[in-house]
User: Which sequence fits this backbone?
């Protein structure tokens, strides 16, 4: 959609990072160098390396960036969400609040079935994302 820097709130499967959130070493593309059957690999700081993904009960990554973008966008497009899991399911309600204050922002859902929060979207288009998304925008 023209974004220069994506916010990966659930992480990236092919990256790894230190288990210590205060560690200064950034996530890295994991080419398998750290894979070991014998022991859990360690970061240069001494703590364990873990997948760069968000597990249940953890705060999603880059939330400040994502929330800022939701508050600045003209169009929120949500693709393939169940509409049940927060904080992501609440983004469309943030857009609704903006609309209530007179902001011209719009929201659109695309997915195989209606999400649990479908009533909050301005428009819902059901179908496979690979089929529906190309029909929405012309380049």
Assistant:
């Amino acid at each position: 959609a023209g974004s220069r820097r994506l916010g990966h709130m659930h992480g990236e499967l092919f990256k790894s990072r230190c288990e210590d959130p205060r560690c200064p070493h950034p996530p890295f593309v994991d080419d398998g160098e750290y894979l070991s059957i014998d022991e859990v690999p360690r970061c240069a700081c001494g703590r364990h390396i873990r997948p760069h993904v968000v597990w249940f009960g953890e705060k999603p990554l880059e939330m400040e960036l994502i929330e800022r973008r939701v508050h600045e966008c003209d169009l929120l497009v949500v693709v393939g969400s169940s509409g049940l899991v927060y904080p992501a399911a609440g983004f469309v309600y943030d857009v609704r609040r903006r609309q209530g204050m007179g902001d011209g922002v719009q929201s659109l859902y695309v997915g195989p079935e209606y999400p649990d929060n479908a009533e909050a979207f301005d428009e819902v288009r059901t179908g496979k994302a690979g089929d529906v998304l190309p029909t929405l925008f012309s380049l």
Notes: The longest strand covers residues 11-18. Helices lie at 63-72, 91-100, 129-136. The CA atoms of residues 56 and 76 lie 25 Å apart.
